[in-house]
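re: ur msg from earlier - yeah i can do the iron/sulfur cluster complex, just paste it... oh wait u already did. ok heres what im feeding in:
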Amino acid sequence: MRTPSIVYWLDNSLYLNITNNCSNNCYFCIRKFRKGIDNFNLKLQSEPSTEQIIKTLQGHVHRKIWNEVVFCGFGEPLSRLDTVLEVTKWICKHTVLPVRINTNGHGYILNPGRDVAEELRKAGVNKISVSLNAHNAQTYQTVCKPRFENAFQKVLEFIEKARKADINVEVTAVQIPEIDLQKIRELADMLGVKFRLRRYIPCIW
Ligand code: SF4
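and the outut:
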C-alpha cells in the first residue's frame, strides 16, 4: 500500500487531506469502501501538523498551473479550523490560487464560540462547497448519521453565515434515492446559493 497522502491531485485541482475525522457517518461514504482515490492512499496514520501540510504543499504547489487548492479528503477539514486558517494564509501569501473548502457544514458545531465564516473569509478562503445530502432533518439523520443533534439546521445556518460573509458558497448533493433533489434545489435558492449535483463518488466533488 502506498504511503498516505496529505496532498493529492485530480485533473488540475490540488487537494489537501488534513484529517480522517468526520462528524458525520454517511452511509455512502467512500471511506467505508476504499482506501483512497485514484492511486492515492488517503487513510492517514495520524493527523499531519500544520507545518507538515505546508511543507508537503510546497513540494507540489508550483509543479504545474493548478486551478485551485481544495481542502477535501477522508474527513471534515473544519474539525481542524486553525490548521485550515494557517494553511490558507500560506497559500494566499505564496500563490495566486483560489482556495476552496469542501465541508459537511458542521463548522459552527465543531468550533463553538468561533466566528467560523468570518475567520475563513479573512484568511482568504474564496469558495465553500457544502455537502448537504438531504432535503430535511429526518433524511439527514438517516443518510448522514451526524454525531450531533440538530445538525441539519446547523448546516443551513452555516450556509447562510458563509454567504453573508461574502464567500462564494454552493450546496452539493449526491444522487441517491433517499434525496429529493428538487427540494434541495429549492432550499439552496431560499438560502441564496447555487446548487450542484455530484456524481455518486462521495468526498470528491
Ligand atoms: S461523505 Fe463526507 S461528510 Fe459524509 S462521512 Fe464521509 S467524509 Fe464525512
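cool cool. The domain at 7-198 is CATH 3.20.20.70 (TIM Barrel). ping me if u need the other ligands too
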